[in-house]
Specification:
It is a single chain. Helix 3 packs across helix 7. The protein contains nine helices and five strands; from the N terminus they run ααββαβααββαααα. 32% of the residues lie in helices and 11% in strands. By secondary structure, it is of the alpha/beta class.
């Protein structure tokens, strides 16, 4: 006679309720405090793809004003949501706020400029898109403790210490840094979801041409399958070749082939601003712990 193993505790309503209560609920208190100082438009901004080995770095931005209501139910830091839950939020997020956009910097641009300047480039492209719709943004709430959006001050010789400065006709808004803003500020959380969904879709699209790397599953991050493919096949034209890629001794000289044009990084015009309207509603089961392909 075999003995039964330890019982798995049942998922009681009380346990589920406690877990739901512990989840962060982003709000607009920080954004509204800035708006009440006399600002007209405040934007939340977040990046995804910074730690990826392949593909673009992407920056989402969502603009709000004093008339903006609370975020759609279920909005949270993209790393806390399953892919299905993130996609289900897109129709509501396409209608929330004053304006929204995602900007990208390609692997070529990351190799040429460095990751910080590439982040600034992607963020500037996102800002340009919303400014063209609603006018100048007064302030940006940026997740984290490092302001990568504001250009560095010139050195003693009047030169920049990186390779990208936003155009003069697009003034950089005042940046407010907030650690874990993607978990507390609704505009930043919404921006993280938009950026994550759009970048994931781009990587899935390009996975068909480069199936060995399994980008449809890992989105360019360092999964075991991705690392094994790098060791076997070397880098593709979509890898960040200036980086010390795992499994390769030295960063090879970047020789690009077809397969990643800047135009291909931009969202399809037919998708803005509502995306899909037939997505399933978000359920409590949409929450997930961070996985390798969900890194910022």
């Amino acid at each position: 006679m075999t003995s039964a193993g330890p019982e798995t505790p049942a998922r009681t309503p009380v346990r589920v309720a406690r877990r739901a209560a512990a989840r962060p609920t982003p709000h607009l208190r920080h954004e509204r405090a800035l708006l009440r100082t006399g600002l007209r438009l405040v934007a939340g901004m977040d990046e995804v793809g910074r730690g990826s080995l392949a593909g673009p770095v992407s920056v989402g931005v969502v603009v709000v004003d004093l008339s903006t209501r609370s975020a759609p139910r279920g909005v949270a830091d993209s790393k806390l949501l399953t892919p299905a839950a993130r996609r289900a939020l897109l129709p509501a997020l396409g209608r929330w706020g004053v304006a929204r956009a995602v900007g990208h910097a390609s692997p070529d641009e990351i190799d040429e400029r460095g990751i910080v300047a590439a982040l600034r480039l992607a963020g500037t492209r996102a800002l340009r898109a919303v400014v063209d719709v609603v006018g100048p943004v007064d302030a940006v709430v940026l997740d984290g403790s490092h302001d990568w959006l504001t250009p560095p001050a010139p050195d003693l010789f009047g030169t920049q210490d990186d390779l990208f400065e936003p155009p003069r006709d697009l003034p950089v808004p005042l940046v407010h840094l907030k650690v874990k803003a993607d978990r507390s500020c609704a505009s930043v959380a919404a921006a993280s979801v938009l950026a994550k969904c759009e970048r994931d879709a781009l990587m899935v699209r390009h996975a068909a041409a480069h199936p060995a790397y399994r980008w449809d599953e890992n989105k360019g991050y360092a999964s075991p399958e991705h690392l094994a493919a790098l060791r076997e096949h070397g880098p593709s034209p979509l890898h960040r070749r200036s980086w010390r890629l795992p499994g390769l001794q030295e960063p090879p000289v970047a020789t690009r082939g077809p397969g990643w044009e800047v135009g291909a990084l931009l969202p399809d015009p037919g998708r803005a601003p509502g995306w899909r309207d037939d997505a399933a509603p978000v359920s409590p089961e949409g929450w997930a712990s961070a996985a390798p392909d969900d890194e910022g």
